[in-house]
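User: Just a sanity check before I run the rest of the batch. Below are the structure tokens for the first item. I only need the designed sequence back.
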């Protein structure tokens, strides 16, 4: 949807589609922070579970990335 009753729709697929998973987390966090009605003043955390290569074993593992 392009319109919501109480919040602004700020997501841009053409931007998000070009980002790495970690950069997408930062983008998502920044979009949430743009609307002061749904954001705690002074911050908060956003997170995403991503598959990464374990540097010790070389195996794919699920990693929780947190943007503070």
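Assistant: Here's the designed sequence for the first item:
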């Amino acid at each position: 949807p392009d319109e919501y009753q109480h919040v602004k729709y700020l997501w841009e697929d053409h931007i998000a589609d070009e980002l790495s998973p970690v950069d997408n987390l930062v983008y998502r966090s920044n979009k949430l922070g743009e609307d002061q009605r749904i954001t705690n003043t002074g911050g908060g955390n956003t997170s995403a579970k991503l598959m990464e290569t374990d540097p010790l074993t070389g195996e794919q593992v699920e990693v929780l990335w947190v943007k503070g």
